[in-house]
Amino acid sequence: MKSKNTIFLILITALSLFTACNQKHKSQTTNEKQKPNIIIIYTDDLGYGDVSAYGATEIKTPNIDKLANNGVLFTDGHTTSSTCTPSRYGLLTGTYPWRNAKAKILPGTAPLIIDTLQQTIPKMLRKNGYRTGIVRKWHLGLGTGRVNWNKKITPGPNEVGFDYSFIMAATQDRVPTVYIENSKVVGLEKNDPIEISYSKNFEGEPTGKDNPELTRMKWHHGHNNSIVNGIPRIGFMKGGEKAKWIDENMADTFLAKAKQFVQNSKNKPFFLYYAMQQPHVPRTPNQRFVGKSGMGPRGDVIVEADWCIGNFIRFLKKENLLENTLIIFSSDNGPVVNDGYFDDSVEKLGKHTPSGIFRGGKYSLFEAGTRVPFNVYWKGKTEPKVSDALVCQIDLFSSLAELVGSNAKTSDSKPMIDVFLGKNNNARKELVLEATSRTALRQGNWIMIPPHNGPALLKAVNIETGNSKEYQLYNLADDMTQHKNLADSEKKKLNEIIKEFKKIRGKTSRESTKLELK
Length: 518
Ligand code: NG6
Ligand code: CA
What we know:
By secondary structure, the protein is an alpha/beta fold.
C-alpha cells in the first residue's frame, strides 16, 4: 500500500513539474511574441500646423489624425533640432546631436556619423529579439569617406543596428539620386558606373545653373548642380542612368518596401523606422495627388504622405498586426515653404500656416523649429488623450528600452515610457534645443536663447532664426508665440537658466556663444 502511494506521489510530482516547465516555456514564447512591434513614422519638414489634428483647417490629414486622435497627441513634443541630420542622430542614438560636431546637414558624400560602437534604437531592440528595418531617408552619412557607389557601401544603416535597409543616402534634393538596398545601389548597371562629387561638375554634364532649359522645376536658391529627371539638385552626379529613382514613384516604392519588410518579419517582433521624404523639396507628388490639396506641390505631398500612412495602417490591420504594434508618428524638424525651388508653395499657401501659432520654422531656434506633431498610438493600449507634457524624440531610446524590458540608457535619453503611453504627465524638466549648431535651453515653461551671431532672418526661406545679440527669455505658459522677451525683467530666472545651461553644455567646440551671467 505504502509503495503504491509513493509511486502515485512520484507520478503526481513528475506530472506537475512537467506541466510547470511546459507552462514556463509556453509563457516565454508567448512573451517573446507579445513584445510589441514598434514603428516610427518620421516625416521630413512637416510642421506643427500642417496636420489637421493639430489645428490645420486648410489641409486635411485624416490618416495622421486617426493616429493622433485615437492615441496620445502631444502638444509640446519636440525633435532635438530644427534640421534633419541632427534630429535623426538624436532620435536613433538617444544622444544630443550637439555632442557630435559632425551632426549637421550632410552632403550625400559624407561618411557615417554614428559610431558603429554607439548605442542605437535598432541595436538595442535587436538585442532584445527584434528584427529591425529602415525604409526611406537616411541622411546620417555612409562609408568612411570617398564612397565607391559601385561597390558595397559600408558602414551604413546595416552596421548600426538595422537588419534591413532600403534608403536614399541623403535627401531628395541631393545626389546620388538612387535607392540603396542593404548597402548596394539598386538597379546599377556594370557598364554605367556612378560618380559623385560635391565640389566639381563632371565634364560635359548639364547643370541647373548652365542649362535651365533642361529643367522642369526651377531653382530658387542652391539646387543648381546636376539635373536628374528635369530637377536640378545639390551635388554633381554622373552615370547610373538605370538606377536613378523616379521622383513621382518614390512614395509608392517606399511604401511597398515598408510592407515587404513587415511581411518578412512576421516570426519575430519587428522595429521599422519608416522615414518618409515628404514634404521636403523637391515636392513631386504622384499624379494621383496632383492638385488634391489646392495648395500646390507642398500641400499635395502632405496629402500623399497622409494617404501612404493610411494605406500602411490598413495593411497592418489586414495582417492582424495592429493590436500588437506601437506606432510613433513625428517629424524631423519644423516647416519651410520655399526651401530652394519655385514650386508655387508660397503663391498657393493661402491661409495655411505650416508653423501653427508658433514663431520660426525649419533652421530656427524659435518654437516652430523643433515643436512638431508627435503622436503615440497603440490599438487597445493607448486611450485617446491630449498630453501637454514636454517630450522629446531623444527620449525614445531609453523609453523603448523600458518597454521591451531592457535597461539600456544613455545619459541624455530619459526613460519615460509611461508618459509616451499617456499614463502620466511626468514631463521632461529641461531640454537643450539645437538649430544649425546654435543651442538654447528649455526649462519648464521657460526658454532661454543665448545671444547668437548671424542673421535674425534667413531671407531666402523667409524664416526667423531666433538669433539676437541679446539674451532672450520667454515664458511659454502665457507667451506661446515668443514675443515678450523677459530677459531684462526676470534677471533672476535668466541667471538661473544660464547657470544650468552652462552645466549641461560644458565646454564644447560647437557653441559660438560665450555665456555670461547678466
Ligand atoms: C539646405 C538646402 C535645403 C535642404 C536642407 C536640408 C540649399 C540652399 N538648401 O542646405 O533645400 O535640402 O539643406 O534639409 O541648398 S533637411 O531637412 O534634410 O535638414
Ligand atoms: Ca527635414
